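Workshop exercise sheet. Pairs work together: one partner reads the sequence aloud, the other fills in the structure field after running the prediction. Swap roles for the next sheet.
Pair: D.N. / O.F.
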Amino acid sequence: MKALILAAGYGTRLRPYTEHTPKPLFTVAGRPLLDLIISQLQEAGCKAVIVNTHHLHHKIESFLSSQTYGLEVFTRYEPQILGTGGAIKNVADFWDEQPFMVINADIVADIDLKGVYDAHCRHHPPATLVLCDNPVFNSVAVRQNKWVTGFHNPTQSEIMPPGNLLTFTGIQVLEPQILKYIPENTFYSSIDAFKKILAEGQQIGAFVTPKDRWQDIGTPQSYRQTAIKTTSSKAFQQALAAPPAGRIHREKLKGDGSERQWYRLKTGHQSIIMVDHGIRQTAMPSEVDSFVHLGRHLYHRGVPVPEIYFYDTFSGLVFLEDLGDVHLQQTVQSKSSSAISDIYKSVIDQLINLSSNGADKFDRNWTFQTSDYNRELILEKECRYFLEAFLNNFLNFKERYEDFQTDFSALADKALQFPNTGFMHRDMQSRNIMIKGRKIYFIDFQGGRMGPIQYDLASLLIDPYVEIPPDVQADLLDYSIEALSAVTELDSEKFRSCYHYCRLTRNLQILGAFAYLSKVKGKRRFENYIPAAVRSLRSTLDAGAQGEFPALDAITRKICRHMKIK
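Structure field:
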């Protein structure tokens, strides 16, 4: 058997995703569709495959050249797309005297291709089409589930062909005689060739398969549904070392500031978490790549993060250990200052572990946006973010960045002057710290990079979700210095200086983020924590040198008056 895989199309219904990745290279359970189809053909006994290409053909050719299969694989570039029939005719020199298979590259099918081929060979009609019952696409008339009687196009006024309507799956077995019904060097549909055959009184075979054995992935929604269904099953198998025990139930979880969607998947008494980052928007490295790289790195370095069981970075799906629903904010609610201090000391111990072990064998190529906490990041993602998202968009002030440039520039320099550099989480706050069985876990580490531990410590201690009392913050800072001094050389005064300025940069980032999430993203619950963040900014400025940041100090006083914060 030889086969043609139709892979030339633009995938217009899947835009914008097909603008950077051809549809045949969309992945399901971590494998490109084209790879899955070639493997299925190989298992069916196929000896040679040819793939027609056009849109982003170099990416398909590059992928195929990197693979090793147990059958010959060729490509045939079409300068102009020829359609299904034209593609079949265009590779006429590839065919021999035996029946051959043609299959679309945009389907996921659990169909016995050898069974299809053998069924065709029992009668050798000019063509055998694999069909299923899908009301969305049903257009092929079939008699007795054995023979195709016609093709119905609901957009055209034509006589309804006799028989039940079924869906053509894009899988077909053809006799070489089909070539004489297709003109050369022109766009042509194989359906038109089939209509000619039927008009001559010849029969076209029908191979009917159950609907659940075939999925079309021609739209983002259908691709996403297929990817979730297939990948979820694979993820459970990886997590449990066995197939899932029955149906997988999906429960959506409440998200936070991120656009990602979180789900708990359950089967029997087992559960895992699925994080849906969305279909890849660009061929460049993205957030989901960092999530996977950093998560796996931290886990293998002994940092308490959830184990990642399985992932598919193109579909944006990552499956990980279920840590329950209790985070640090809930744990410390209504507790005494001494109890809060004890819990936070345990978190700080693990934060030191994160900074040290996370930095060991760390690859900066894993990071998203920037590999280090640097001056440009501080100025753009924290200072400018504060001014534009919080001052001007949220509070409706009319402030100019130029009026704060001296303060912002000095702040960025001082925040980086005495760092104790290690792996930095970048969003170390109570909702990103889970508590399971009294054990502490860090989540949402995709923004990690190299940077000062002082920043993560500041993020933890000034967290508006908890608003730790100032005296407890001071005690925890002392504890952090003592604990760090036991494992590395430390200048206490320099450490405190860097911590102070990181408090300010983090505070600006928090206010920018809460304002953006509230005003732009419509997540109004974040607005409730803005007063606490303003109070923290005010107290941190008051604790510093008088007149050090005059513009920032003046605007903070204006904010307090405007928001009536004492």
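Discussion prompt: DSSP finds 16 helices and 22 strands in the chain. What would you look at next?
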